[in-house]
Amino acid sequence: SAVISQKPSRDICQRGTSLTIQCQVDSQVTMMFWYRQQPGQSLTLIATANQGSEATYESGFVIDKFPISRPNLTFSTLTVSNMSPEDSSIYLCSVEDKGAGNTEAFFGQGTRLTVV
Amino acid sequence: QKEVEQNSGPLSVPEGAIASLNCTYSDRGSQSFFWYRQYSGKSPELIMSIYSNGDKEDGRFTAQLNKASQYVSLLIRDSQPSDSATYLCAVNPNFNKFYFGSGTKLNVKP
To answer: Is the model's pLDDT at A99 over the cut of 70?
Structure first.
């Protein structure tokens, strides 16, 4: 399975500022995914990042708030812009790995963001 | 209607008992189903995948799939306190996007 390194693991940020989260994979992958997990909730997909094209955002998420970069097949960043306390959450990077012909999702360690 | 539904729990079982976790999904065409375990403060960890009707066993874990009923379950035999976590059911209906349930919190009491 793919090994995913995500950083920072946690941060406390002032409202109105921005934070960029990095995700590095040890192998080339076509698609990378960014999820948000609010306290006590399940995972909500923010966007799908494809190399060489604009990210695809899910309903309720916009590029101005969550700009994403995907400069190559092993790396992506998610920026949380103009943060407010409502953005306090865990942000997770994910990739899909086709092992033995089946697709499985694997996750980075997550970034625990607190906005004060 | 949510894509994937789970009972949020908590489900409490004594050590050594069988824990049964259930999940239903809405997309009848779904082909891939997964169970993830998430310890508090950690990211989800894949523990089982299942693709065809019936049972799939891996150690103390058994996944069961019934596509006609749109139902998938996870059985944990000989439950241990270390199994205490939130278990997320996930469905990959079109090989392009995963949908996650809200998770069931399992407490295994020593």
So the answer is: no
